[in-house]
Amino acid sequence: MDAYALLLGSTLSAGTVLALAALGLLINEKAGIVNLGAEGMMLCAALAGFAAVVHTGSTWIGFAAGMAAGALLAGLFGVLVIWLNTNQYATGLALSLFGTGFSAFAGQAYVQAKLPELPKYAIPLLSDIPVIGPALFKLHPLVYITVLLALALIAFLYRSRAGLVLRAVGESPESAHAIGYAVRPIRLAAVMAGGALCGLAGAYISTVYTPLWVEGMVAGRGWIALALTTFATWRPARVLLGAYLFGGVTMLQFHLQATGVQVASQLLSMLPYLATIVVLVIISRNPAWIRANMPASLGKPFYPGS
Q1: Region 154-160: what's the mean pLDDT?
Q2: What is the rounded CA–CA span in Å between residue 203 and residue 197?
Q3: Mean of pLDDT values over 27-53
Q4: Which residue, of 11, 101, 195, 207, has the greatest Cβ tally within 10 A?
Q5: What secondary structure does DSSP assign to 208-277, as a single string?
């Protein structure tokens, strides 16, 4: 039973990384912007968060540093694609490559650095419940904050005027511009908010999930988060569900190894990426369903004067 409780808790922790990044990318895409630079942003944010904790000893300052790094890189991306009308896909790929290379170069000084020991978190009374308590109520507060964030995003997108405007910009920026909304600043704000969440995901990886810094430690999670937005058909609740599903697949490899299942470790390591490919193949079999849920202007440039 303890093994299954550990698997459940690990699944929630691993899913938090994907949920934060995918929710950020969902905000981008609801505004009509595709950012393929999530992997690079998360790596730079992971380094920024780790360095901040090394020098301050505070995980929360590390989270703030990661969010700032993610928002800064996303803002640069936003200026290029929103004002200079560079290709969104090419610019995003360039950002991902830049982030990968820059974090590897700048992070050399932190490879051997150690973080202070993390405090133990537990919700009184609930954490004492057998099996469920250790699995659900002894997790880092950011795990619970992520669930609340998804609920807040649902309320924002579908119950607020600002959310309606954001979705309108993603559906038809020309119409939104015609009735007086500042499409470009709105898109930039969405891109930077999404970048901040990707940055928070990166900082969580390096300061809590695996508290160390190594080159390339995001290990493709930015790309999985991109696929997750499509898998979830651009719905925050489905993003959360999908993130925990992918998190469970990721942790299953360690659970199987711990229980003595004789499967090659390389095969088990492939599971999260294989699951991503299978899901995308299944979804792509029904393009009409994707078009019905996808923001109509996703990936399309906007020219105010046209």
Answers
A1: 96
A2: 10
A3: 97
A4: 195
A5: IIS-S--TTTTTTHHHHHHHHHHHTTT-HHHHHHHHHHHHHHHHHHHHHHHTT----HHHHHHHHHHHHH
CA gap 219, 198 in Å, rounded? 14
- Nearest CA among 61, 69, 277, 52 for reference residue 192: 69
Structure tokens at 93: 């790929």
Q: 293: which residues sit within 8 A by CB, 6+ positions away? A: 233, 234, 235
Can you tell me which residue has the tokens 């698997």?
7
Domains and CATH numbers, the chain: 2-113+124-293 (1.10.3470)
> What is the predicted pLDDT for the residue at 123?
86
pTM recorded for the entire structure: 0.92
| pLDDT tens-digit readout, 243-289 | 998 888 888 777 776 666 676 767 777 777 787 788 777 777 777 77
